[in-house]
Amino acid sequence: MQSLKHKILTDGTVNSHEILKVDNFLNHQIDVKFLNEIGKEFRERFYDVEIDKILTIESSGIAIATATSQYFDYVPVVFAKKNESSNLDEDVYKSKVFSYTKNKLYDVMVSKRYISSGEKILIVDDFLAKGGAVMGLIDIITQAGAELVGVGIVIEKSYQDGSILLEDKGIRVESLACIESLENKMIKFK
Amino acid sequence: MQSLKHKILTDGTVNSHEILKVDNFLNHQIDVKFLNEIGKEFRERFYDVEIDKILTIESSGIAIATATSQYFDYVPVVFAKKNESSNLDEDVYKSKVFSYTKNKLYDVMVSKRYISSGEKILIVDDFLAKGGAVMGLIDIITQAGAELVGVGIVIEKSYQDGSILLEDKGIRVESLACIESLENKMIKFK
C-alpha cells in the first residue's frame, strides 16, 4: 500500500533500539481518515472471503478493526482483553502471549459469548513481528471452534519470523507494508 | 438518545454486583454501525464548538473516539495510555487515576507531542461513574495548556458523583444515556 509506505517514511521514526514508532497516526494519536483507507485496503485484499467477525487485541488494534468493519458490512468487532476486569465474563477463552515491547507474559481473553463455533474470523492488528499476539488470537479461535479466514496486518516486520511462522501453518497473511530492515535507523521496505 | 436507551435495555445486563454490562456492543464486542450513530449524536450535541482533537483513554474509549472523529472532520484522536511500554515516549504528561472496576491506582499518560498548548480538546469515553478517568484526562489537558471544550459520555451512572463533580467545575458534559439506578438489577434511566 503505497500511501502507507509514504506515511511511514514521512511520519514514522526509528528510535535508538531500532523500534519503528508510528504513534503519530496509528497507535497513540490516530489519523481516522487514513485508518479508513487501511480498512478499504483490507477489504480489497480479502475481497474473496466471507467474514462474520473481526478479531483484534487491545489497545492498538481497536481503532484499526473499527475502521475496517465499515468496509465489511459492519460485521462486529471483538477485541481480546489483556487485563482482568470485573467487567469481563468469567467464562472466557484464554491464551498466553509474550510481549517483547512490554517484556512480559500476559493472558489474552475473549468472552465465550463473542466467538462461536463455525464463525468465520478475520484477525487484524497494527504490527506483526514474532507473531505472539496473533498466535494467541488463533489459539482462541481454535478453542472456540471458529474458522480463521486470514490475518490483516498494517505493518509487518519481515526481518522477524512471525509471517513465516503463520504462512508455514497455511494461514493467509495480508500485510499492507513490509519492513525488511531498520538497521542504522533507516526504514527499508521489502 | 432513544436508540441507545433501547439498546441498553435490550442488550445490556446487570450482574450481581450491580455492574451494567454492555460488552456485546460497546466495550468488548463492538457494533460499529451503532458507534457511528453515537458519533453523529456527539456532533449534534457539540454542534456549536470547534475542536482540534478528541482525547480518550484506552481501551474502551478508542472505538468510540474513532467513530466520533468521522463526524468532526476527522480531527485526530489521541488515546491516553495506562501501561508503560517501550513504544511510548519518555516525555509524557502523566496523571494518576483510581479504577474501581479494576480496584487499582494507575498512571494515564499522553506523549507531550500529541497535546499542545491552545488546542481545543473534546474528551469522549464509554462510562462516567465517579469521574476518575475523566479527571485524569482533564489534568493532562491542563498540564499541556490546552483547552477542554467538553466531555462526551456514552453512559452516565448518574447515581455516582462524576457528573456533579464535573459540572461543579463548569465543565460541559453531554451524556447520551443517564442511568438513575441499577437497584434490584433493574435499569432505570434518569
UniProtKB/TrEMBL annotation, chains A, B:
Subcellular compartments: Cytoplasm
Binding site for xanthine: L20, N27, K157
Domain (Phosphoribosyltransferase): residue spans on this chain: 23-158
SUPFAM superfamilies attached to this UniProt entry: PRTase-like
Keyword Cytoplasm: yes
One GO cellular component term noted in the UniProt record for this chain: cytoplasm
This enzyme's EC code(s): 2.4.2.22
Pathway given in the UniProt record: Purine metabolism; XMP biosynthesis via salvage pathway; XMP from xanthine: step 1/1
Reaction(s) the record says it catalyses: XMP + diphosphate = xanthine + 5-phospho-alpha-D-ribose 1-diphosphate
Top-level taxon in the UniProt lineage: Bacteria
Protein family membership: Belongs to the purine/pyrimidine phosphoribosyltransferase family. Xpt subfamily.
Subunit structure: Homodimer.
Classification via PANTHER family: HYPOXANTHINE/GUANINE PHOSPHORIBOSYLTRANSFERASE, XANTHINE PHOSPHORIBOSYLTRANSFERASE
Functional note: Converts the preformed base xanthine, a product of nucleic acid breakdown, to xanthosine 5'-monophosphate (XMP), so it can be reused for RNA or DNA synthesis.
Name of the protein: Xanthine phosphoribosyltransferase
Organism taxonomic ancestry: Bacteria, Bacillati, Bacillota, Clostridia, Peptostreptococcales
